[in-house]
């Protein structure tokens, strides 16, 4: 058993936000932990589904299209890293890793593959609920005819079909982006007021072989030029000495 003692149930209720009824896939092989997490999430107005191993998690992710996945690292049949890699290959479903591994190398591995957050065991169920709510808020996704969309200003990301577009003067313009440019834009749009360091974007958005932070600048520069051709300037915006935020004059 790897849960910490939690506070009163009122602390969990206080985390309720308007994204109630979002579906959370709990991929956890320890049934007792999964049941407790489900109870806390249900109490906060969220729906849950359980997968006891990695292969079952991928099957349910494909068929049920959850809004977020709570993913244990050490699971039978397929471990959490393998599951996360496949989920990222499919799209941008937010994933929070549940792990007993708290070494920096493990966290960097997860960030490179595409984890949105971590909770290290032992953890409080109330803390997990708070993390889930925070990630769902950052995601800002809406469902239109079963397709998950991320919208900020004139920008729209189709998370299921990997398509980015902008709406200008009543016309939608599809952006011709590389996979890395798409990942950079998506990451920044999930938290449009947050400043991302080059190191963060390098780990979460760039291919495995890229290790130089200046490579991030190159991808951002190319993304900017594509947006400038549509009259959208200073997006992404530079924050001197830190990195980039969504920002801009859109």
Q: Give the uncertain stretches in residue-range form.
A: 5-19
Could you give the order of strands across the largest sheet? 2-1-3-4-5
CATH architectural group of the largest domain: 3-Layer(aba) Sandwich
Range of strand content: 15-25%
Largest sheet: 5 strands, parallel
Tally of alpha and pi helices: 9
Please state the average pLDDT score: 82
Q: What class do helices, strands and sheet pairing give?
A: alpha/beta
CATH topology of the largest domain: Rossmann fold
How would you describe this structure to a colleague?
With 250 residues, the protein is of the alpha/beta class. The chain folds into two domains: 9-139, Response regulator (Rossmann fold); 142-245, Winged helix-like DNA-binding domain superfamily/Winged helix DNA-binding domain (Arc Repressor Mutant, subunit A, Orthogonal Bundle), CATH 1.10.10.10. Helix content is 40%, strand content 22%. The protein contains nine helices and 13 strands. It has helices spanning 9-13, 31-43, 54-64, 80-90, 104-113, 125-139, 179-190, 198-205, 214-228, and strands at residues 23-27, 47-51, 68-72, 95-99, 117-120, 141-144, 147-152, 155-158, 163-168, 171-174, 196-197, 237-239, 243-245. A five-stranded parallel β-sheet has the order 2-1-3-4-5, with helices on both faces. Strands 6-7-8-9-10 form a five-stranded antiparallel β-sheet. It has a three-stranded antiparallel β-sheet with strand order 11-13-12. The longest helix is centred in the middle third of the chain and has 15 residues, at 125-139. The termini are far apart.
């Amino acid at each position: 058993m790897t849960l910490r003692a939690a506070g009163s149930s009122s602390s969990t209720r206080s985390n309720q936000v308007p994204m109630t009824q979002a579906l959370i896939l709990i991929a956890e092989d320890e049934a007792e932990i999964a049941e407790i997490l489900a109870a806390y999430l249900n109490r906060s107005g969220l729906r849950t589904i359980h997968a006891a191993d990695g292969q079952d998690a991928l099957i349910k992710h494909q068929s049920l299209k959850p809004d977020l996945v709570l993913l244990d690292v050490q699971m039978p049949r397929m471990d959490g890293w393998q599951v996360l890699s496949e989920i990222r290959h499919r799209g941008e479903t937010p994933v929070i890793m549940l792990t007993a591994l708290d070494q920096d190398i493990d966290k960097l591995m997860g960030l490179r593959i595409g984890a949105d957050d971590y909770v290290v065991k032992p953890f409080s169920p109330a803390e997990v609920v708070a993390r889930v709510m925070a990630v769902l808020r950052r995601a800002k996704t809406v469902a239109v005819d079963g397709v998950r969309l991320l919208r900020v200003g004139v920008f729209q990301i189709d998370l299921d079909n990997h398509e980015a577009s902008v709406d200008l003067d009543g016309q939608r313009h599809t952006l011709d982006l590389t996979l890395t440019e798409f990942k950079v834009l998506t990451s920044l749009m999930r938290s449009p007021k947050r400043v991302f360091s080059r190191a963060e974007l390098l780990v979460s958005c760039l291919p495995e072989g890229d290790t130089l932070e200046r490579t991030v600048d190159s991808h951002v520069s190319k993304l900017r030029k594509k947006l400038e051709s549509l009259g959208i300037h200073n997006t992404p915006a530079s924050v001197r000495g830190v990195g980039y935020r969504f920002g801009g004059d859109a």
